[in-house]
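The pair is quoted verbatim below.
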Amino acid sequence: MIRHSLSGSTGWSRRDLLRLGGLTAFGVAAGPALAACAGEESGGGGKANLQFMYWGSSFEQKAIQKMLDEFNSRQKDASVKPLYTPQEYDTRLNTLVASKRVPDVAYLGAGTAYRLAEQGKLVNFYPYLKKHPELASRLPYTYYWYGKDKLLGTQTANEVILLWYNKKTFQEAGVDHPPAEASKAWSWDTLVETAERLTFDQDGRRPSESGFNTKQIRQFGLAANFNSYGWYPLVRSNGGDFVDETGTKFLLNSPEAVEVFQNLQDLMYEHRVSPTPAQTGNNAPTTTVQLQTKRIAMAIDGQWVLLDMAESNLDYGIGVLPSYQEPTTIGFAAATAAFTGDHDDKTVELYMFHNDPRYVDLYKSGLWMPLEKKYYEDQAAIDSWTKNAAHPPEFRTAVVDYTLNNSVPMFDQRLKNTDAIGEVLTPAIQQIQTGKHKAKEVLDALKPKIEPLLQGWYPSQEL
């Protein structure tokens, strides 16, 4: 996981690239610390000297180190060292794989994880499901299956997409705040109407008022999100999808999907309630900062934003996404996998430990959400990670219940060949975002480009 706003000006954000395995979005080459990798330390038969490879912010680094220290304190015949790699992750990992000095447990983007699993380099967790029942009781979409009875692991943690807002901007405008229950989700029209009432130029005029100055907008009502995790839940809510059930037919030019993309474009260029890429700039502040400074009043972003929100002095709120036909959000995250070696049982033990909410602070602090269903169904389990100052009162309905009852999997978590697909999809989504072409024109032109790249879905399997 990465701690940042996850916002971006393209259809595929830095986080998208991370999930898909395009980790070369980082910009610093791997350093000499490669020599410390566990592959050369973990000789068979003796103590298991393990290594945990991961990316993330300095905050995540601190939390992971604490988790690893706790794991070590409980072990007599194993120890684990971190291989923290915040930049050039994929390059470094590929080097380790080529030199046969792989880590034992590692964060992996989906594309990389499936490739390594198919090459036989990763532990198949299927035989461990009975030994570790907590692994068998996770949310169904969090698993990474690559064949029948072949499981490379699960998401590192879970995330969903939400509607964030600055309560003060709503109070000042006399506007009702977004609902925190899926059954009460706004329609798209209500979202637009509310955003219009929350948008002002420097003289206090709204977009619908005469003399509204588009070149001097003080506050935008909403930040449109053109990242894949921003538009996909809306497309699913409207009855559309990226591809069909076979994973070989492109559907993003369907009327349902076109409507969503055109609505997103219209937020900026017709309704003028959302900043354009030119108004946002290449180095936009985080969602938290933009809400805090009242540059925007609302934003569609991930649950991971809670960490920054909780650490700020912003009086924020959480709502569910607007709904077209059915209230819908998405559940998604990068994978954690384990490499095969001389100590697979200990490696699996570390794997199970690394994202257990009992040992990792990232759940209570707001960056991560648990994987096991009990953390969304059992009140005591829910309280164990949400009953604290970081989680506001509406978190139960706006996030926990919303996740359990209204989340669908992100398409790129199971779709094959997503790296190549992303290279074609990104510039097309940019054309819609910049307003150069209408959504239908762009998405119709995408069909003959993306359809030849579609290779179907990786399997899913019920437990």
Summary: The CA atoms of residues 55 and 86 lie 5 Å apart.
